[in-house]
């Protein structure tokens, strides 16, 4: 049972390049999330999905797009990377998110550097 | 909007001693959940303990307990008998409502160093 996996683990981009981060979970979870973590900060929500085919914006969505074509996968895209997007990206999932008790399980993170 | 405050950027504790990490929260929702996560230097987020707003008793999980004071809106993490492996960042988080897909709202964290 792999839990939540993220691909890639590390990436270096040049300004203006694009890339896609892949998150996969094998726990049949409905809800999935993308967070970013910057030095000295907690995690901040980028986008989330409450089920296959749905996505919604979180606290810091600018410069990112997401897709959830399959229940087990949640993709985060950077169309034109900027140095401000240098961060560690975490994917998380949870079964239903109701009623506030379900634990969120996190992937190992992707460390992205934009030069 | 909900808010989580962790006022201790860094804490030191000697091995085998107990330590309390502070967390205060602000919300107008009657239903909420409070979580603590540990992030070691390797970077992964490890779930430690959960407290629901309607829970009558403080949550406990092994050496971890949560000192939940609802009227004061605080949810402090207590680690008993600290071990060297407890050295890590600790994050307090609150479960947001359906408007944010029940996402977690995190504090900025407390760095704990356990010394021999």
What's the short version?
Chain A has 115 residues and is mostly beta strands. Chain A has strands spanning 4-7, 10-13, 19-25, 31-37, 43-49, 56-57, 65-67, 73-78, 87-94, 105-106, 110-114. Chain A has no helices and 11 strands.
Helices and strands, with pairings:
The complex is a heterodimer of chains A (115) and B (116).
Chain A: E1 4-7, E2 10-13, E3 19-25, E4 31-37, E5 43-49, E6 56-57, E7 65-67, E8 73-78, E9 87-94, E10 105-106, E11 110-114
Parallel strand pairs in A: 2-11
Antiparallel strand pairs in A: 1-3, 3-8, 4-5, 4-9, 5-6, 7-8, 9-10, 9-11
Chain B: E1 3-5, E2 10-14, E3 19-21, E4 24-26, E5 33-39, E6 46-52, E7 60-61, E8 64-69, E9 74-79, E10 88-95, E11 104-106, E12 110-115
Parallel strand pairs in B: 2-12
Antiparallel strand pairs in B: 1-4, 3-9, 5-6, 5-10, 7-8, 8-9, 10-11, 10-12
Name some characteristics of this structure.
heterodimer; A: 115 residues; mainly beta; seven-stranded mixed sheet; B: 116 residues; six-stranded mixed sheet; four-stranded antiparallel sheet; globular
Q: What does this protein structure show overall?
A:
The complex is a heterodimer of chains A (115) and B (116). Chain A is mostly beta strands and 115 residues long. In chain A, 0% of the residues lie in helices and 48% in strands. Chain A has strands spanning 4-7, 10-13, 19-25, 31-37, 43-49, 56-57, 65-67, 73-78, 87-94, 105-106, 110-114. In chain A, the strands form two sheets. In chain A, strands 2, 4, 5, 6, 9, 10 and 11 form a seven-stranded mixed β-sheet that branches. The radius of gyration of chain A is 13 Å and the shape is globular. The termini of chain A are far apart. Chain B has 116 residues and is mostly beta strands. Chain B contains no helices and twelve strands. In chain B, strands 2, 5, 6, 10, 11 and 12 form a six-stranded mixed β-sheet that branches. At the A-B interface, strand 5, strand 9 and strand 10 of A face strand 5, strand 6, strand 10 and strand 11 of B.
């Amino acid at each position: 049972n792999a839990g939540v996996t993220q691909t890639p683990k590390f990436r270096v981009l040049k300004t203006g390049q694009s890339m896609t981060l892949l998150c996969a979970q094998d726990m049949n979870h409905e809800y999935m999330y993308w967070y970013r973590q910057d030095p000295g900060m907690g995690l901040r929500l980028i986008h989330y999905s409450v089920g296959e085919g749905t996505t919604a914006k979180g606290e810091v969505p600018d410069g990112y797009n997401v897709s959830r074509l399959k229940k087990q996968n949640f993709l985060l895209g950077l169309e034109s990377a900027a140095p401000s997007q240098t961060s560690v990206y975490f994917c998380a999932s949870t079964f239903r998110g109701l009623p506030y008790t379900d634990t969120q399980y996190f992937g190992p993170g992707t460390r992205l550097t934009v030069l | 909007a909900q808010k989580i405050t962790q006022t201790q950027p860094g804490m030191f504790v000697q091995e085998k001693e107990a330590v309390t990490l502070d967390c205060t929260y602000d919300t107008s929702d009657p239903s909420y959940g409070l979580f603590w996560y540990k992030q070691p230097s390797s970077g992964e987020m490890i779930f430690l303990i959960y407290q629901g707003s309607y829970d009558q008793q403080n949550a406990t999980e092994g050496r971890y307990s949560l000192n939940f004071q609802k009227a004061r809106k605080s949810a402090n993490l207590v680690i008993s008998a600290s071990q060297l492996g407890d050295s890590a960042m600790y994050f307090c988080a609150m479960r947001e409502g359906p408007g944010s897909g029940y996402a977690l709202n995190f504090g900025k964290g407390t760095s704990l160093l356990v010394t021999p």
